[in-house]
Write a structure and sequence with these properties.
Layout lengths: L9 E4 L7 E4 L4 E15 L9 E10 L8 E9 L3 H18 L14 E9 L2 E9 L10 H6 L11
Antiparallel strand pairs: 1-2, 3-4, 3-6, 4-5, 6-7
């Protein structure tokens, strides 16, 4: 198991469109959270003929436990020239919507105020998101264990944007 360095676990999120936010990196585990902010932005392609990349960031405040009050961040690329990148992010966002009882969303701000449980791991100085669960049903995953390894949406899954 990888070690966790709590001293290096806070960083400034300079890319946040709404302004700089402190982002915490927490040890792997399951956390009850509330979405406190959601931003999206576009990255223009460097080469002509490539698709504009659209990125969404979700900021979660941990509601209880040893890490209470800390903010963690999830990044999802919803439009990308590589369809596999879109599929992975779409699958994760779909599972997140399932966990809060939404069929999808047209504006990422619809997620603000929603509460759920997330399963996170660490990768370098970031948290990776591996599972999304209803807040009141922590043992039932909307993301199958296999999806944690290959990040593929089940066949036929469609996400409404």
């Amino acid at each position: 198991m990888a070690s966790f360095n709590a001293k290096a676990a806070v960083r400034k999120d300079q890319d946040a469109p709404g302004g700089v936010m402190e982002i915490d990196v927490v040890p792997q585990g399951m956390y009850p959270v509330e979405v406190v902010r959601a931003d999206s932005w576009e990255k223009q392609p460097v080469d002509m003929g490539h698709k504009t990349t659209v990125v969404v960031s979700f900021y979660y405040k941990i509601l209880e436990g040893e890490e209470v009050g800390k903010t963690i961040k999830q990044i999802a690329t919803i439009a990308h020239q590589n369809p596999v990148v879109e599929e992975i992010s779409g699958s994760k966002i779909g599972h997140m919507c399932d966990a809060v009882g939404l069929p999808g969303f047209r504006d990422e701000k619809q997620m603000v105020g929603k509460q759920l449980r997330v399963r996170v791991g660490t990768k370098g100085d970031k948290n990776e998101f591996y599972g999304f669960y209803p807040l009141n049903q922590p043992q039932q995953s909307s993301m199958p264990m296999g999806a944690m390894n290959n990040n593929r949406a089940p066949s036929g899954t469609e996400i409404e944007w």
